[in-house]
Design a protein that fits this description.
By secondary structure, the chain is of the alpha+beta class. Helix content is 31%, strand content 28%. Strands 10-11-6-2-1-13 form a six-stranded mixed sheet, with helices on both faces. It has a five-stranded antiparallel sheet with strand order 12-14-15-16-17.
Length: 299
C-alpha cells in the first residue's frame, strides 16, 4: 500500500477543512493512504453535532479576530493556532485504525522528544499519564474514512481558555453534543527545545518512511475545492447546522431551529445573531429587552 504525506501551506481553517474533505471525496484510498498535516491561524473548531454558542465564547472570538468553524466529523470543540499541529490519517474504511494512528504519533514523539506520552481510554494522547496534548475525531463512510487529531506543541493557552468558555451560555438548553473538558498541556512546557517541523518529520517517517510534500490548496489543482470551502464558511453551516435549542427569561422562551429564533409573542422569526438583539430591544417590551441582554452576551 502506497502512503502519501502532505502538508498544507494554507493557514486558513476553512481552506484546510476543505482540502481534507476534497481528498475524502475524491481520492482512491484503495490505492494509497494519506497523512495530511496542517496548521491554522487562531480559530475554534466545533464538532458536526455541536452548538457554537455553548461551546465557544462567540463575542470573544469576534472581538479578537478568531475564526469559528464547524467540521464534518463528530467529537468536541478545539482551539487551533500556529502552535498546534493538525494531523489527518485518511484511508479506506477497511484500513481505518484510530489506535494504530495514535500509537504511531506517540512512538514518533518519544523518539524525537524526551517525553512520556500515551493513549488513554478516551483516545486522547496524554503526557505523564495526566494532561491532554491531543484530542481526536473521525468520519467514516462506506468507502473511505479519516481520523484527525490535534497536537498541542506551543499553543496560546490563555486564548484557548478564553475562547472556549463563556459562562453566559449556561442559559441555553440543548441536547447538542457537549465537549468533555480536560486539563491540557503544551509539549513545549515539557521539553527545552521543540521544533514543529522536526515533530512533523518524525511522524511522517513513522507513518511512511518518506518525506513530506508541501501542497498549496487551490481550485486550479483540486477542482471543486472553492465550492467546498464556501460551504464551510457559510453561516448556515457554522451556525444554522446547530441542533434545536432554547433559552428562557422570566416568562419568555425563545426557540432556535436551524439558526432561526422564534417567540410565541412575535410572529416573525429572526436569525440568531447580533441583529436579533436590536429586534428584541425595539419592541420596548421589558421582558423581551431583558432577553435581548442575555442574547447579547452569547452572540
Amino acid at each position: 500500500m502506497t502512503k502519501l504525506v502532505y502538508r498544507s501551506l494554507s493557514s486558513n481553517i476553512y481552506t484546510n477543512l476543505a482540502i481534507e474533505d476534497w481528498f475524502y471525496q475524491n481520492h482512491n484510498f484503495e490505492k494509497s493512504q494519506i497523512l495530511l498535516f496542517y496548521r491554522n491561524d487562531p480559530c475554534v473548531v466545533i464538532g458536526r453535532h455541536q452548538n457554537p454558542w455553548t461551546e465557544a465564547n462567540v463575542p470573544f472570538l469576534r472581538n479578537n479576530g478568531i475564526s469559528l468553524a464547524r467540521r464534518n466529523s463528530g467529537g468536541g470543540t478545539v482551539f487551533h493556532d500556529q502552535g498546534n499541529i493538525n494531523l489527518s490519517f485518511m484511508t479506506s474504511k477497511a484500513d481505518y485504525n484510530r489506535s494504530r494512528n495514535l500509537n504511531l504519533i506517540c512512538d514518533a514523539l518519544m523518539k524525537v522528544l524526551d517525553v512520556d506520552v500515551s493513549v488513554n481510554k478516551r483516545d486522547d494522547i496524554v503526557i505523564d499519564g495526566t494532561k491532554k496534548v491531543s484530542g481526536t475525531a473521525a468520519k467514516i463512510a462506506r468507502g473511505s474514512a479519516y481520523h484527525h487529531c490535534t497536537l498541542l506543541v506551543n499553543v496560546d493557552t490563555s486564548n484557548l481558555h478564553k475562547a472556549l468558555n463563556n459562562p453566559a451560555s449556561a442559559i441555553i438548553e440543548t441536547n447538542a453534543t457537549k465537549s468533555v473538558r480536560s486539563p491540557v498541556e503544551n509539549l513545549a512546557n515539557k521539553c527545552e527545545a521543540v521544533n514543529i517541523e522536526e515533530i512533523e518529520s518524525a511522524i511522517a517517517h513513522q507513518f511512511a518512511g518518506n518525506r513530506i510534500v508541501d501542497i498549496h490548496p487551490s481550485d486550479l489543482v483540486y477542482e471543486g475545492l472553492d465550492e467546498i470551502e464556501e460551504g464551510y464558511q457559510s453561516w448556515s453551516w457554522i451556525y444554522g447546522k446547530s441542533p434545536k435549542f432554547s433559552l428562557t427569561s422570566t416568562n419568555q422562551k425563545m426557540s432556535v431551529v436551524n439558526g432561526e429564533a422564534s417567540l410565541d409573542s412575535i410572529s416573525e422569526t429572526y436569525r440568531f445573531d447580533s441583529n436579533l438583539v436590536g429586534h428584541l430591544e425595539s419592541t420596548c417590551n421589558p421582558e423581551l429587552v431583558g432577553l435581548a441582554g442575555l442574547v447579547k452576551q452569547i452572540v
